[in-house]
Amino acid sequence: MADQNAATPVAKNEDSARGFAFALTAYFLWGFLPIYMKMVAHIPPLEVLSHRVIWSVPIAAAVLLILKRTDDLKAALRSPRTLLMALLTAGLISVNWGIYVWAIGAGRALDTALGYFINPLFSIFLGAVLLKEKLKPTQIGAIALVAVAVGILTYDAGQLPWVSLALTLTWGFYAFFRKTLPVGPNQGFFLEVLLLSVPAMLYILYAETTGQGHFLQTGMSDTLLLLGSGVITAGPLMIYANGAKLLRLSTIGIMQYIAPTMIFLIAVFIFKEPFGTAKMIAFPLIWAALAIYTWSMLRDYRNR
User: For the whole model, what pTM was predicted?
Assistant: First the structure.
């Protein structure tokens, strides 16, 4: 997961095969995440979130030591601007994680899928407005199909659920600021969880001392699941961070359909959440948009 451009302040605004592979791996891992989150649904979301943060710290630190990128980290720690930006991205990702954990446990996995279906449109909007990314006709066509699909899903729900909207905004802005964070992806993730570890540890100590905690208190199963939350958190996010540095924001936006599609299938066929006619229409439209955009991107890469 080493990033050869980690020391570059701002990543090049173009696509690469290496970035595509990183992002694809991350999104598939995230696609299966609801199954794990369902296994800890009996544990309060804030406790799960806190353990995700705490156990991500040693994993992220080990990666930096293995890759020998601690000098970059020291430089980042001496930069007030980098620390402030890391604090911003840490806040965004913690809110996103918290809402996601709660929604899966509350039986609203379809709402999370809808949020991540909508989010790429928001990412493409940010890319076009803030990074001046230009879209080709095939890409515009793909976005139009997505807009129709999202409209059908939103209409079917009667209104845009707050879960979906919150996930869209927090992840969309996280992706944007993470792309422009002037530090390597692995160092950036370590800074984020390091900053979040203080409130996380305070909450865990409070939960354990008041008898509300589940770590080492309610059986080996709960303890192992909470320990494993660090792996399922740090792994995909660090892989994603490496990929985000090597892809255009609009490309990241379209690839984000992979995870919500998997979440959608898990919600319907494993969690047995309601599946209506509107979703049967919208779902193929979203996959068609992904196929069109991916074909266009791969064709351009092959021509280059």
Answer: 0.81
